[in-house]
Amino acid sequence: MSGLPSAGHALLLDPSTRDDPTLYRRLHAEAPVLRTAGLWLVSGYQQVSRLAGDPRLVIDPRAGDPPLPLTQSERLESIFGGMLSFRDGAAHRRLRQLVSGAFSARRTNALDRTVRDLVAGLIAQAGDAEFDVVPAIAERLPVLTTCRLLDLPTEHWSRVDAWARTLTGQLFRFGQSADQLAEVHRQVDEMTRFIDDLAAERRDRSGDLVAELLDAAQGADARLSHDEFVSFVVLLFINGLETATAAISICVAQLLHRPELAARLRREPDHALEVVDECLRLQSPVWLAARRSLAPIEVDGQVIETNDPVFLLWAVANRDPAIFAYPDEFRPGRAGRHLAFGRGPHHCLGAAMARVQAAEVLRQLAAYEHLRAGAGPARRRHTAALNTYDSLPVTVTPAGEPLSRRAEARLHATSR
After folding, report:
1. What residues have CB less than 8 Å from 337, skipping those under 6 apart?
2. Domains in the chain: how many in total?
């Protein structure tokens, strides 16, 4: 295991070292559970899956010793702190049960036509023969889908998008000036008033998602406080904003890299979801998840002690040869369930929706028979947890050509 602890630790400190399947293979073979520099890296598929469901590992950084804040702003701390994303145990189970209806198979399936129309509209708006998929489609589609899910009029979409990006940028951000925080608080006040007005408008609307959440926050047996209700709606605004953008970008990058893949999707568009799953297995949008141990945990003959930081490496586990044969090869339809959207109680709520969005983008771009990478450079971005793209130019020829009648007819006839 010579040099492996330092090489493993570099994965956290220097994301540019992450595209190294040789290191992945060493971790799987020599140390699927590795202690380095006072923390744990877990990279084996079975070990990651087990620990992701262990209640002794918590996601809330405020539960550690010392507790760590989520944001610099006390106002935002109360909003983020009430979210499902940062709750554990019984509180998490209660909130998850209440919000799961928002992402039920029924609601997700009902969005198929909506997502198809949104993608077609975004491609049409891009207009030119060459455009950048990230700002034109990948960044906009998740927010627009959420706005449709909440049945918001189109005049509100840009406001929701701006609020979502402001809030997402505040998580784990510190050192801002008083003026910067004042502007953030102004936007939060504006957003909260919007949510309260939305609640008053939707109070008695049957089958409405906001009305369902509001119902859970009212009466003597209310299951949600008002603050939790607001946090839930905010969570819907920001859910998957960065991860869905990353997932779409990763899938399009594979489409551009593999001309045979686009040709296959033109012939067999109903295989798009299995293509998405294999793209995300090879390059997981969320590279890792941070947890902290509340009690000793024995795994593979080692003991994770109380308060130890633990990093579950989804991306490395997705290359485990014990689960995925020839793990570095692109093989859509392979056996095995990838961990790109996590595992356990904190499995991504929006996973099904993100898959639908990415699959539809692949179908519609692949329908252009002359799709190829654009002249500008594709720019990848690695953060502590995220693997995504800042830019991904594509060219469709000729400029402005709509989907061919043959491809369009196939898209609308395909049953998904």
Report:
1. none
2. 1
Residue 269 has pLDDT above 60, yes or no: yes
- What tokens does 360 get? 């539809």
Q: Which residues contact 414 (CB under 8 A, 6 or more apart)?
A: 269, 270, 363
Q: What is the CATH number of the domain that holds 187?
A: 1.10.630.10
Contact 289, 340 (CB under 8 A): no
Query: Any idea of the CA torsion for 317, 319, 325, 328, to the nearest 10 degrees?
Result: 180
The two structure tokens encoding residue 225: 């406080």
Query: For the stretch 124-138, what's the b/e string if a residue is b when 16 or more beta carbons lie within 10 angstroms of its beta carbon?
Result: eebeeebbbbbebbb
Secondary structure (3-state) at 387: strand
The structure's pTM equals 0.89
CB 190 within 8 A of CB 201: no
Q: What is the pLDDT of residue 407?
A: 42
What's at 187, amino acid-wise?
Q
Please give the structure tokens belonging to residue 276: 């998405």
Residue 128 structure tokens: 């030119």
- Of 123 and 225, more confident: 123
Q: Give the full edge-to-edge strand order of the sheet including 33-36.
A: 33-36, 39-42, 309-312, 289-293, 57-58
Which distant-in-sequence residues (6+ apart) come within 8 Å of 283 by Cβ? 250, 253, 254, 315, 387
Predicted local distance difference test score (pLDDT) of residue 405: 38
Instruction: Supply the range of the domain harboring residue 78.
Output: 4-413
Say how far apart CA 36 and CA 14 lie, in whole Å.
15
For the chain, the farthest-separated pair of C-alpha atoms sits apart, in whole angstroms, at 65
Strands 379-382 and 387-391: antiparallel
pLDDT (0 to 100) of residue 146: 87
Burial of 39 per CB tally in 10 Å (0-12, 13-18, 19+) = middle
